[in-house]
Amino acid sequence: MIILKKLSFQCSAILFLQKAVSLYREKLEWFCSYEKKLEVWARMEIIPMKQLRDCGGIIYKSAIALKLAPLLQQPAIHIATELPKYCTEIVSLEEKKNTINFEVEVISSGMVYLKLTDLSIAKWLSYLTSVPLQDEKQKFQVNVEHKSAETQNLFPIQYSHARCCSLLRMGERDHLIFLSPITSENYSQIWFIPTPNTIPWQKSNGQLQFLHHAEYELIAEIASVLDYIYCVFSTKKPISWEKVANSLSTAFQTFYCQCPIWGKVRVETPKLAKARLGLVLATQSLLKYILEEKLGTKAPLEL
Q1: Bridge partners of 33?
Q2: DSSP SS3 for 191
Q3: Which of 124, 132, 195, 206 is buried deepest, with most CB atoms within 10 A?
């Protein structure tokens, strides 16, 4: 579990499994030699984690059971099926208003899958759109791949950012959303929603408002970008922020083409229109952050 202000689902998933493995470790103490304990516990401190794509949600998979199986001399599937029991115990012990919850599933190979619940995604989106994104580069040391401005083709990213800004201005003009601007240190505007929970992310049955695959792909891409920004466990390789921003830009353009906000959607399903504008705001915030903080260029409001 992790407080939502951390913003990274990957960090949440890793810490969640670390706690489950720690509880499982106590059960294993009795049959391990001292030397083997040291090796096993060292392996348990490093939780492999990867986000799945094209899955219609936000899902992370971990091969921790496969990693521990040869050390513990137990089948990976046995280790993997034990871990959800401790995950359930963690949820019951640490259930709080602002924690992230996962649905845990194990497959026959021993892989452990953690799927974000709709409620957790809704809370995360609400937080992300109501708090200006802060630069954590002093707190989290991230490897960055530096490129000169001359070698970068940033126009598609800047275009997507400007398109987001245009949609947000239209949304505010039509009273679908209310934005509060602040001026950052470099005198560019940062938009956010001053009153949390004003966007209806969920339906009355608790499911997310979204209907289209492109919406969930954009949400997954947003989550991936935040993992790069905030999660120290995400990668040891240098990060190409241009590539990260291009992936987000592409996901947004697909969403923009396939998920209308105005016309029939605005008239018949205004809550869906507002939720889609919320995704636009989250995208705009991240594109602006990467352009200005990571790529050292302007995030234009219009082109």
Answers
A1: none
A2: strand
A3: 124
Using DSSP bridges, classify how beta strands 112-116 and 50-52 pair: parallel, antiparallel or unpaired. unpaired
Which among 24, 15, 2 is positioned nearest to 81, based on CA atoms? 24
**More confidently predicted of 200 and 1:** 200
The b-or-e profile of 133-148 (16+ CB within 10 A means b, else e) is beeeeeeeebeeeeee
Bridge partners (DSSP) listed for residue 182: 190
The CA-CA-CA angle for residues 185, 187, 193, to 5°, reads: 85
Do 51 and 223 contact (CB within 8 A), yes or no? Answer: yes
Distances (CA, A) of 23 to 53, 116, 162, 227, 239: 30, 22, 48, 26, 34
Residue owning tokens 């050292």: 296
HEC secondary structure over 24-78:
HHHHHHHHCCHHHHHHHHHHHCCCCCEEECCCCCCEEEECHHHHHHHHHCCCHHH
Collapsing DSSP to helix, strand or coil, 179 comes out as coil
pLDDT category at 134 given cuts 50, 70, 90 is low
Q: Which residues pair with 59 in a beta bridge?
A: 52, 115
User: Model confidence over 137-146: pLDDT tens digits?
Assistant: 434 334 444 4
pLDDT digit string (tens) for 177-223? Answer: 998 876 555 545 678 888 777 899 999 999 999 999 999 999 999 99
Are 104 and 89 a contacting pair, CB within 8 Å? no
* CA 43/CA 146 separation, integer angstroms: 32
Would you tell me how many other CB atoms lie within 10 Å of the CB of residue 84?
17
**Within 10 A of 232 (CB to CB), how many other CB atoms are there?**
14
